[in-house]
Amino acid sequence: MSLSRGMQFILFFVLALVLTRVPYINAVLEWYNTFFHELSHGLGAYITGGNAFSMELRFDGSGRLMSGNSVLPSIVTFSGYFGAILWGAGIYLIASKAPTVSNKWALVLAAIVFLSVLLWMRDWVSWVIAAVLILSFLAIWRFAQLGIARFCLQLIGLYLIASGIASAWLLFGHDGHNDAVSMANKTWIPASIWIIVWVLCGLAALWAIWKVENRPSR
Q1: Residue 215 has pLDDT above 80, yes or no
Q2: Contact 171, 191 (CB under 8 A)
Q3: Suppose 198 and one of 136, 168, 169, 193 were both cysteines; which one would form an S-S bond, judging by CB atoms 3.0 to 4.6 Å apart?
Q4: How many angstroms separate the CA atoms of 162 and 11, rounded?
């Protein structure tokens, strides 16, 4: 008996949540989250009239994007968690609603990572992590059957949302340098409020996907 799209979505999200807690596997999957988080900071800089200068990715799942000249630096900071969640929803929905283009979508994602390497990455650790991401997307594009490609991209998309929610939530009680503290410094709104906003954005993305997946087919 085949599962409904809604049930598949629930199972994929549960799997994504489990993978956030599995040692070694979650470390590699977190590289996807870090890349799209930092990419979103960069896009936020360009959208607000600024520039992105360099992107750094680290084996422990941390990262940094250097930017400047933005007229709305708070948007640049906010874009990290918010953008990664949007990327996750987009990756999932494109793979889900247009399964026959899943392979091509993987190729587009590989090209996005490669372009980021050319524009922003300057150190060997970032190059290694980017190479892993590029090769994984290329493998999905070149070798995976459509069903497997769709599954892999859906899982990556939901992992981005799950990790975005979880990593934002873990900012509670951390007074060191992080996006929530930066937002508080720039807006005078408490860091806890921004954490709640990012978590709600993640939950809203999950709700939107659920509604799309349970829409009756015409």
Answers
A1: no
A2: yes
A3: 168
A4: 13
